[in-house]
Amino acid sequence: MHLAALHTPSQIQLNQDGHLKHFLTIDGLSKETLTKILDTAQSFFNDQNQLITNNLLEGRTVMNLFFENSTRTRTTFEAAAKRLSANVLNIDIARSSTSKGETLRDTLWNLEAMATDIFVVRHSSSGAAHFIAKDVCPHVAIINAGDGRHAHPTQAMLDMLTIRRETKKKFEEISVAIIGDIKHSRVARSDVAALQTLGCKDIRVVAPNTLLPYGFEEYGEDVRLFNKMEDGIKDCDVIITLRIQNERIDSPALSSQAEFYKMYGLNKERLALAKPDCIVMHPGPMNRGVEIDSSIADGAQSVILHQVTNGIAVRMAVLALAMQGQLQEKGLLEAIAG
Ligand code: CP
């Protein structure tokens, strides 16, 4: 599927009451929907800033279906589902019958027949989660855990939660620089969409032209391109650094990693150009010494590990909201998120 087809705002994500049904992409969702996710995620922290547990999804089955490797996303979805008291099944794709020629559709239908309520899907093909969402029973929710270079909506929402919690500023007031391999990054695409929807007016994309996506100019006037890193991060409130997605690059975009570090690596001298309280984020996995220096990754302004914790809260929120219809019948969700 061409990425442009996936940009079309899609009603497939919402039920007839306008509530989240599937979570496939940020595109097409309203500021109210994104804010609801953030507020619900925040409600899963107690007064001591610790994640809570509850029984919102007791009796529900969440199936993690990862056709591509993951450390953070798969594990935090599992942690989130368990904190909501759901049954969690992690499917070992390498040992599944997909290796015997079974189609994705047949695999899905068989797993669906095991009383699954929510599939969390990661796939290397852009559009895989959309494809599956069109094909499942009406009561089943699909959550996109990253599809090719298209979208990673829960990563975007955990990034937004991190920005909100750490800067304590409104999205309208902050400048955000996203640095590195924008072209192959589903995180960059989803982050830009979430920032725009939440009202951020100063989004800076910092990259060489070889790592910019086609059609970049269509992102809108609140997104500006900077080829020179020093200009792009000046007076920023938030810096998001990105890994070079070598697995999605079919022709050399750079002469070397050393060259990338020289031009775009985040180090002390460069970070000093941003605001003194600028936070540093990275979705992981990090390549230390390529896009970020270890002194910054482990430094006082880094919130990289906070992103991981916030990822559990956001994934709890998305899992709960995807079951909102059933939970509302039981009067549970409103009691939690207010
Ligand atoms: N940020 C992210 O998606 O990391 P994983 O690939 O480890 O899930």
UniProtKB/TrEMBL annotation:
Location of the Aspartate/ornithine carbamoyltransferase Asp/Orn-binding domain: 173-321
Superkingdom per UniProt: Bacteria
GO molecular function, one term: aspartate carbamoyltransferase activity
EC number, as in UniProt: 2.1.3.2
Pathway entry: Pyrimidine metabolism; UMP biosynthesis via de novo pathway; (S)-dihydroorotate from bicarbonate: step 2/3
Residues annotated for carbamoyl phosphate binding in this entry: 72-73, 122, 152, 155, 284-285
GO cellular component: cytosol
Keywords, comma-separated and alphabetical: Pyrimidine biosynthesis, Transferase
Keyword Transferase: yes
Domain Aspartate/ornithine carbamoyltransferase carbamoyl-P binding: 21-164
Residues involved in L-aspartate binding: 100, 186, 243
Reactions listed under catalytic activity: carbamoyl phosphate + L-aspartate = N-carbamoyl-L-aspartate + phosphate + H(+)
GO biological process assignments: 'de novo' pyrimidine nucleobase biosynthetic process; 'de novo' UMP biosynthetic process; amino acid metabolic process
Protein family (similarity comment): Belongs to the aspartate/ornithine carbamoyltransferase superfamily. ATCase family.
HAMAP family linked: Asp_carb_tr
Quaternary structure note: Heterododecamer (2C3:3R2) of six catalytic PyrB chains organized as two trimers (C3), and six regulatory PyrI chains organized as three dimers (R2).
Functional note: Catalyzes the condensation of carbamoyl phosphate and aspartate to form carbamoyl aspartate and inorganic phosphate, the committed step in the de novo pyrimidine nucleotide biosynthesis pathway.
PANTHER family in UniProt: ASPARTATE CARBAMOYLTRANSFERASE, ORNITHINE CARBAMOYLTRANSFERASE, MITOCHONDRIAL
Protein's name according to its UniProt entry: Aspartate carbamoyltransferase
Gene: pyrB
